[in-house]
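We modelled the chain as a single entity of 313 amino acids. Its sequence is:
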Amino acid sequence: MIEIFANDIRSALKNQCYFSALSLALTLPDICGKAEYPNKQVAERYISWYDKYIGAYVKNEGSFGQSPYLSGEMVYNLRNTYLHQGSPNVDASKVKEETNQVDKFILSLGDGTKIHEMTFSVNVGAVAFRTILVDITYLCSVLCDCSLAYYRENVEKFVFEFNIIPQGYLFGKDSPLDVGPNDGDPIGNVINKKLLATGNNVQIAGNLTQHIMNISAQTLTGKALLQNNQPSIEKNAPAKPTPSKKELQFRSFFGQTFKEKKYKDKKEQIIEAVLTSKTKTQLNSKLTKIFPGVDVKIILKRLQSKIKDWPGQ
């Protein structure tokens, strides 16, 4: 992943597309910071990664004390002002480290062979004037080289999704457009899981991935993959709700108490009548719609242990 970005940055620098290179180079600590500190916030992981892998090596103290340098704070500030405001500058008011609260940040549009970085500071009492000049090729190259070295040593940390397919691969000898998917139906599986998670009982039947690739192959190459059945949408029977503890207990009681066929045939109606009634009167009324009076009396008598505390006669 980082190799692709690094190649683009170097290509842009070679063709003197300096600001294109800078735009991409300033995002490299974002990517590496995400890999190194996945649980930190954006600013914290950007600055932490930069200071650990770059800043510690460019910081230097001269005979007159610490001079401004390309710290994580400064580069992150440059990233924000340039990528979000279009200004390749540093807002000193947002830099905490006093040494790097520069009055002037200057970019030199060069190839990095004449100058890398130069600082200039004047201190008069409690007042200081600080300037830093940085060659844009030098800055991009440092970000590029350090990020690439980090990536190669920590490739296992780069677990986030990166869906890029080179055109040469797509239309090359072993193009995925020449064969069907060999890992089932990943697209259909994702959609079906999302449908189930929302409580929707509609599901995709057939291989949706195969179908989409077939259409893509026809569009891009003029030939289809192996013929496959077009996927369809099927509506599954809605899942039955989980029985309550009360219902489970009564079903067990029913099986032990009502052995006669005439009651077994009306089992679900009897159970529903009991579970939906709150008084003996309601239960009697519902049972009367199912059985003649003599059977209602038998049922109520057998249910006495379950409904003895219910209100009504």
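As a brief sanity check on the tokenised model: The beta strands are 61-62, 65-66, 104-108, 117-124, 127-135, 202-205, 232-235. The mean pLDDT is 83.
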